[in-house]
């Protein structure tokens, strides 16, 4: 989850989020270098006398400011496209979960298990157990096994929603009448918090998402308890 006064992203909890963090650092370094170059040229122009005022063209300079931006765009585009393809790739998921957005809660259906369906509501402040996070904790968490590819099928029943868990690098729109698909793999056990990221009405801020990644044996114990 996010921390107070946090400036950067949350720590990566999935391989896709690790790739996104690396791409962010890569792009940010390019932006920093460009900004430094532009600032240097501005200072140079303001602190030196103008020369060659009668020059009408400069072929070498025009080639530089045409080729250099093209090279920079390629350096940004190639890793970006690679990550986009990785995010869309779904290969042999171990588990499929359908998330359905409502005003204002989420319901989950484990399609590989019969009758494993539940609603997930935010726990109100007055009922919140001590030590839990206000406006982020739910009564039924979505439990998944760690280190297993999970396929998410995401839709909505009424209005637009968005199923987003930053630590896992997921943000997928939930659209009524349409089934969107995404995938993630939790790298380690823990609780990962998210929220609806599409304004969906007056209680938009009160439909959090909590994913609990656990061991395979822990997941099997939980699923058996939920089905019994």
TrEMBL record:
Compartment annotation: Mitochondrion inner membrane
One GO CC term on file: mitochondrial inner membrane
Cofactor mode of binding and number, as noted: Binds a copper A center.
GO biological process: ATP synthesis coupled electron transport
Catalytic reaction equation(s): 4 Fe(II)-[cytochrome c] + O2 + 8 H(+)(in) = 4 Fe(III)-[cytochrome c] + 2 H2O + 4 H(+)(out)
Keyword Magnesium: yes
Keywords, alphabetical: Copper, Electron transport, Magnesium, Membrane, Metal-binding, Mitochondrion, Mitochondrion inner membrane, Respiratory chain, Translocase, Transmembrane, Transmembrane helix, Transport
Bilayer topology: Multi-pass membrane protein
Function description: Component of the cytochrome c oxidase, the last enzyme in the mitochondrial electron transport chain which drives oxidative phosphorylation. The respiratory chain contains 3 multisubunit complexes succinate dehydrogenase (complex II, CII), ubiquinol-cytochrome c oxidoreductase (cytochrome b-c1 complex, complex III, CIII) and cytochrome c oxidase (complex IV, CIV), that cooperate to transfer electrons derived from NADH and succinate to molecular oxygen, creating an electrochemical gradient over the inner membrane that drives transmembrane transport and the ATP synthase.
Organism: Eublepharis macularius
Transmembrane segments: 27-52, 64-85
Taxonomy, superkingdom: Eukaryota
Protein name: Cytochrome c oxidase subunit 2
Pfam families membership: COX2 (PF00116), COX2_TM (PF02790)
Domain Cytochrome oxidase subunit II copper A binding span(s) in chain numbering: 92-225
Family of the protein in this entry: Belongs to the cytochrome c oxidase subunit 2 family.
Primary localization class, coarse: mitochondrion
Cofactor: Cu cation
Annotated Cytochrome oxidase subunit II transmembrane region profile domain residues: 1-91
GO MF assignments: copper ion binding; cytochrome-c oxidase activity; oxidoreductase activity
């Amino acid at each position: 989850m996010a921390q107070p006064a946090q400036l950067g992203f949350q720590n990566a909890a999935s391989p896709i989020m690790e790739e996104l963090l690396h791409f962010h650092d890569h792009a940010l370094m390019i932006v920093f270098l460009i900004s430094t170059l532009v600032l240097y040229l501005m200072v140079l122009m303001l602190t030196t006398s103008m020369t060659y005022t009668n020059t009408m063209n400069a072929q070498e300079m025009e080639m530089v400011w045409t080729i250099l931006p093209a090279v920079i765009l390629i350096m940004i585009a190639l890793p970006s496209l690679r990550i986009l393809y990785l995010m869309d790739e779904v290969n042999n998921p171990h588990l499929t979960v359908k998330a359905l957005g409502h005003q204002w809660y989420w319901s989950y259906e484990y399609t590989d298990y019969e009758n494993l369906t539940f609603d997930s509501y935010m726990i109100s402040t007055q009922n919140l157990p001590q030590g839990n996070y206000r406006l982020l904790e739910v009564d039924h968490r979505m439990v998944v096994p760690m280190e297993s590819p999970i396929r998410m099928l995401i839709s909505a029943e009424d209005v637009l929603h968005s199923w987003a868990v930053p630590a896992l690098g997921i943000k997928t729109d939930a659209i009524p009448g349409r089934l969107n698909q995404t995938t993630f793999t939790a790298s380690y056990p823990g609780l990962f918090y998210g929220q609806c990221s599409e304004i969906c009405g007056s209680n938009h801020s009160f439909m959090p998402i909590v994913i609990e990644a656990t061991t395979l044996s822990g997941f099997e114990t939980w699923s058996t308890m939920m089905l019994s």
